């Protein structure tokens, strides 16, 4: 069947099954969980609380086949230039492969030895900082490592360093990304330039936010009266434009290359992971890569029906395109993973926020949805009301570590119980009769007026991702699953999940507006933009 025939068939299947309540499906099929979960190493993926039956999955897998997903997966693995608008391969999976992996050729060159050379250099650099072997210019031990980058050059390493806080070594790691000077001012005021090393991370080495902060950091260092020669000991860089980093004044031995076949939001596995290397050390960083590699092996070698990232993508598409759902929330029930959704925002929304197909045609269906989230249990006290009783259908991904290294009272058990309870409540709901029965003690009038407010429709879908512990391996595995989900969605929607032309336009306009903010001459924008600029000018004079 063709893609559009499969699409049509799924639309009909949705109509035929939409009224079925998951509560009844669970009651009728005691094996539902057994048939609708997958395990991989320390991960359990339960997708049984979805508005699907076996036929739905079969049809969705056929849609993936009609979209030539298996062929696209192979093309990605091979290193084909699947990022067609930028004529680049997308080889983040190569970054997690072993040094002995089969050659992957890009432009006639095997990239495996080259990428491992850079990785090993960065890991050795990190280890020298951790061990105290690499000191500052005045001979003091390095206590703080400050990573300056934005978007993909920030979110991945920042989220991971925070997630793996329990594995931290002795060097504190900080992140500066925002051009709002509060970010850099607040971070640097606590630091000593003699014991601080910076990494300037920018694939392009042209991102203005990062360069502004890099210059401010260098000025801060110089303002402390430390010698110019010390820049070489206190600054490092990560970029695919090694020459630009060297021009900034960073010596070649402290510049770590990244490659144009790695997209920014897929780059934490590359030398961009340097702050994570400093945070947790070489052994843990390699475990993190191994976890992602394990998911890659699963993704590339498992039939669609049992393939975790493919199932994740298909379920996302099922709600996005056939149920008209507008958003998807991901909630890690883990304080350390509280930035997971920020990383996922960029991964999914920058990748799938496209309305042209790879061939430049307008897409004929909705593409990327709104990805948002907050750590559990806090989310329950913020936006979960809308998930339970609101008018929109927002599927949830629960991510829950089963054990914790901390033994503070019964906090962890309580947190896990809440995650499980939310998924159950969303699925089951509460009927009007059940609500009335709960209020049996009230007089009839009170009962009748309150019961509708206590009714929950239920039938609200969720996936649960349980990990035995929040380890570097499990984190890598989970992140790779989301990366592959994003890729698979992109393929099925017919878009390119590896470019991001949409963020360029605003950057160009900002370049024009910035000098105008302090100029007296006339403005040629629309009246709103002119009005905003004038207000800015007025505030500078007050
Ligand atoms: O936000 C646009 C973007 O190009 C992202 O894709 C990228 O991760 C980020 O800017 C930073 O880019 P760079 O690493 O080149 O500084």
TrEMBL record:
Q: Which PROSITE patterns match?
A: P_GLUCOSE_ISOMERASE_1 (PS00765), P_GLUCOSE_ISOMERASE_2 (PS00174), P_GLUCOSE_ISOMERASE_3 (PS51463)
Q: Which organism is it from?
A: Neisseria iguanae
Task: Locate the transmembrane regions by residue number.
Answer: none
Function according to Swiss-Prot or TrEMBL: Catalyzes the reversible isomerization of glucose-6-phosphate to fructose-6-phosphate.
Family per record: Belongs to the GPI family.
Catalysed reaction(s)? alpha-D-glucose 6-phosphate = beta-D-fructose 6-phosphate
What is the name attached to this protein's record?
A: Glucose-6-phosphate isomerase
Name of the coding gene: pgi
What's the Enzyme Commission number for this chain?
Answer: 5.3.1.9
A single Gene Ontology biological process assigned to it is: glucose 6-phosphate metabolic process
Pathway, per record: Carbohydrate biosynthesis; gluconeogenesis; Carbohydrate degradation; glycolysis; D-glyceraldehyde 3-phosphate and glycerone phosphate from D-glucose: step 2/4
What Gene Ontology cellular-component terms does the record carry?
cytosol
Q: What EC class is this? A: isomerase
Does this entry carry the keyword Chaperone? no
Q: Name one Pfam family in it.
A: PGI
